[in-house]
Amino acid sequence: MAMARDVAGANERAVRYARLIELGIALSAQRNHNKLMEMILVGAKEMTNADGGTLYLHDSDKRELRFEIMLNDSLNIAMGGTTGKPIPLPPVRLYDEAGDRNEKNVSSYAALTGKTINIPDAYDAGDFDFTGTKAFDVKTGYRSTSFLTVPLKNHDGDMVGVLQLINALDGDKVVAFPPDTTSLVEALASQAAVALDNQMLLEAQKNLFKAFIDVLASAINAKSPYTGGHCRRVPELTNMLARAAAAAKTGPFADFALTDDEWYELEVAGGLHDCGKVTTPEYVVDKATKLETIYNRIHEIRTRFEVVKRDVEIDYWKAVAAGGDEVALKAQRDARLAQLDADYAFVAECNLGGEFLAPEKVERLKQIAGTTWLRTLDDSAGLSWEEDQRKPKDKPALPVVETLLADKPEHIIPHEHPPVGPDNPWGFKVKPPAQKFNLGEVYNLSIGRGTLTPEDRYHISDHIVQTIVMLSALPFPKNLKRVPEWAGGHHEKMDGTGYPKGLRREEMSVPARIMAIADIFEALTARDRPYKTPKKLSECVKIMSFMKKDRHVDPDLFELFLTSGVYKEYAKAFLTPDQIDEVDIGQYLSQAAE
Fold it and tell me: In the chain, N or C terminus with fewer CB closer than 10 Å?
């Protein structure tokens, strides 16, 4: 009989040891926080045959133990962990308001001392206060009798949390936790502490990286509040559309899914998708008028018009003083002044870039540009070294006759460094302009549509090149290796005509294609751009439908964008009420989708 009991006991211990090893391996592999919490507590309950238990995590900043998961089989309690149900109990304070250690609470005592406490009967534990447990008993009739409270310490000896088990069971009978199971739980607690510590370190790294991304977005926002808003909204819309794709049960995205790590990877890629904009001059990104650089150069041109008008007045009075026909001279003067006013109004209107500039208007600009005025001051005085280098070295003698509008040699700003050419390790297929910038006045005022020159557009487009270069230089861990690809593809087009690599649809991942739609839709609907008025929701969807027909965006994702209602969800969150109107999405869906 005794031998049989010994064999049974040995077998039971072997099972427990095997379970401990199995749990240790599983804990080291588990990366989901809630699942890890649950594995620790459930494993400890199984090894000790405990009826219930609680797992606390130590919050060193607040000096308290925070409830993470609570389980009790008899009371059918399952809170925290993967259940998602909040635990309606306040945290356990390790110190009172006076700063004295809270050693009456058994969990607090274990955390403060680092000792395991095995209490056979809570109703005969004079050193600890179980008032809360007894009040609990009155309401339910349940007796929390035996307690095993084990501190969780990492390899540095720092407190990570506390594991508390309640009511060891021998059949239906509550018994004390035997010493052999206590040592097993302590071994499990040690492994759990290391697993938790590693997970918290990983979470801290994630939080640090998220904070870094936020700092970068704030830096972009400090340069330009318009692009800063874009950097915050595109990740939101990317996540919305990715969630819709992952939820699809049928169709082209029925098999699309992302792991927890991949969702984080997508979040990082979204947050960094425009990090290259830190290199783009804000006066290019926010160029609200054609003559704008660091300031709007229309003021210089207005001053020149004022000089010419003043000269007309002076010439009039000189002619009158010389005995000329005052009536005829006055009529001539007034006509010339009216013409100059009209010419300046035309130049100012061209500067806004609101309408297409027809060829005949460009010709009128050139005619106006030919109007001359007299400069009597040295235009090289007070210049920076860099600006002076662009001026011609042969200075004409003063005074100098100049034109109202000009394209001068000093308006050409060369590249400081060789731009990215066809031979590059990233596979960029971009053609840089001959010069970095062309600030010529006639050149800029003659822009056919909008406010940007080809050089300006190149520099705005170059932000994606810089994004990929910057992200490729970062030593991303394995779970973030695709960030450069996902973040760097949002200006590619499905037909291969996009930039900077000219990728086709089949060469792009689904997340990269999702981000391309998010980037375009955010830009179309944005209400904080200085160069355009906010568009209606229906107008934005219509424009994107043309892009779908032209194979600029993924057609399947665009239809999912509409049928899933993501466009509405985003509009409610980020558009003004007057932008949101009814959209008949049926006209934009393929026959198959209908």
Answer: N
